[in-house]
Amino acid sequence: LVNKPLVLLADDPTGNLAQETSAPVVDLLLEVVAEQGTAMVVATHDERLAARMPRRLRIVDKRLEG
Asked: What is the pLDDT of residues 17-53, one digit of tens each?
């Protein structure tokens, strides 16, 4: 994020964090990408994390649903 990328790819960014730790990490990521105008693509199985994203796409039975 230091180099202000156009896109940030986050593969399960909270997967190894405890639930009470993951919320502040997501808050920080969302704040930084908003400030920098960076697009963030998050791949996750965590429904709580996905619910915090402004747009969600799902892959179900090899099909993209949006």
From this structure: 988 889 999 999 999 999 999 999 999 999 999 999 9
Nearest in space to 51 (alpha carbons), one of 18, 14, 21, 16: 14
Residues in the chain: 66
Q: pTM of the full predicted structure?
A: 0.81
Cα 33–Cα 16–Cα 32 angle in degrees, nearest 5: 10
- Could you give the CA distance from residue 66 to residue 64 in angstroms, rounded to a whole number? 7
Spatial CA neighbour of 22 closest among 31, 13, 30:
13
Distance from C-alpha of 60 to C-alpha of 4, rounded to nearest angstrom: 32
Is the Cα torsion angle 17, 19, 25, 29 positive or negative in sign? Answer: positive
